[in-house]
Design a protein that fits this description.
160 residues; 1 helix; 11 strands
Length: 160
């Protein structure tokens, strides 16, 4: 009798997990990057796409100190890039940022990076809560080596 009761309890619990599982998925953060790199745009070189956090792409957007970090990968991690956005000083806020004023985008793709960047980016929305970054909308342009170098352009979005 106890064994039958245990199976019945397990079946009911499994049914409840199935009912409540979609609610947990709906509460997951939404992160995406839409980007296009011109041929020769180091280090991304001609890649483009729209990547949203999914089984095909992993996209994580978060703040690490005063740096806004975007980590994205595809093909099971075989293609990976990171963009670190930073202001001349302090945490990023709504506004436009430019290389000439000290703003930076550190771009790294599949182990290669550009630290000599000529970047501009605009943050149209940034919100923080008790758990950190809760919303972000930003556009960017990153060029490596010179202001006339091929560009990586795109936008990032995040909502928790």
């Amino acid at each position: 009798m106890k064994l039958r009761h245990a199976f019945a309890t397990l079946a009911v619990a499994a049914g409840l997990i199935g009912v409540f599982a979609p609610v947990a998925v709906a509460d997951e953060p939404i992160a995406s990057i839409d980007f296009a790199a011109e041929q020769g745009a180091f280090p991304v070189d001609g890649k483009s796409g729209y990547w949203a956090d999914s089984p095909e792409h992993e996209v994580m957007i978060r703040e690490v100190g005063d740096v806004l970090r975007v980590d994205a990968d595809a093909d099971g991690g075989r293609y990976y890039f990171r963009l670190d956005f930073s202001a001349p000083s302090g945490a990023l806020q709504v506004g436009s940022y430019d290389h000439a004023e000290g703003a930076r985008i550190l771009a790294i793709a599949t182990g290669l990076g550009c630290t000599d960047d000529y970047s501009t980016f605009t943050i149209s929305r940034i919100e923080r809560g008790a758990e950190g970054l809760s919303a972000l909308d930003a556009t960017f342009e990153q060029r490596c080596g010179s202001p006339d170098a091929p560009a990586l352009r795109g936008e990032v979005h995040y909502l928790r």
